[in-house]
Amino acid sequence: MVIFSNLNQFNLTKIDLENIIEIDSQNFKGLSIWDKEDFLYYITNKNYLFSVIKKDGCIVGFCLSFISSFESELYKIAIKKDFQNLGLAKLLLILHLACLNLKGIKVSYLEVSINNYKAINLYKKIGYKEIKKREKYYYNKEDALVMKLELRIRGLSNPQKPLNNGISPPHTPFKI
Questions:
Q1: What number is the average pLDDT over the span 142-160?
Q2: What is the reported pLDDT for 46?
Q3: 24 within domain boundaries
Q4: Can you give the residue range of the structural domain that contains 72?
Q5: Does residue 30 form part of some domain?
Q6: What percent of the chain has pLDDT over 70?
Q7: Is the pLDDT of residue 78 over 80?
Q8: Of the candidates 81, 54, 62, which has an alpha carbon nearest to the alpha carbon of residue 20?
Q9: Does residue 77 sit within a domain?
């Protein structure tokens, strides 16, 4: 397994993009499925961090966050159905959050369906806390939980300043 972040720095193939779209449609069927143009926008925009996990050269999961100043919002995380329940979502999210932390991000927010117990449990295990409920947030009138995670930048004398002065962290993939 290999995990990449800041995919816009790598060569994204047509097959990679097809895998991402397939994983998205498997996991968000009937909800917020994005098309090729949506993903290309997020992958190539410097205000987003896009991470993937690959097995044998094939993308089996992805994670996307919007970055604003010292905060981020987790937009999506998804693992291919055949690879779920193996701890990959937790691993991918932890490494994704570490990359955000290296960029000087101090807080990560997310919204999750109040009925998505599996995701809520994952977020709580990582340390996210429920901060409020948005009633009838989704198009189907389902409520959403807003969750927050304080990221800690360790070893800095001035935690207000990003670690890298706006430069992306090294683009070396994590190997597992």
A1: 73
A2: 87
A3: yes
A4: 2-95
A5: yes
A6: 78
A7: yes
A8: 62
A9: yes
One DSSP character per residue, 87-114 reads: SHHHHHHHHHHHHHHHTT--EEEEEEET
- Smallest CA-to-CA distance from 90 within 135, 131, 138, 123 is with 123
What is the number of domains present in the chain? 1
Give the mean pLDDT of 166-173.
Answer: 40
**Long-range contacts (CB closer than 8 Å, 24 or more residues apart) made by 110-119:** 110/73, 110/74, 110/146, 110/147, 111/137, 111/144, 111/145, 111/146, 111/147, 112/144, 112/145, 112/147, 113/138, 113/142, 113/143, 113/144, 113/145, 114/142, 114/143, 114/144, 114/145, 115/142, 119/77
If we measure between CA atoms, which residue out of 150, 52, 62, 56 comes closest to residue 106? 150
pTM: 0.81
Classify residue 38: in a domain, yes or no.
Answer: yes
The answer to whether the beta carbons of residues 142 and 136 sit under 8 Å apart is yes
Secondary structure (3-state) at 61: strand
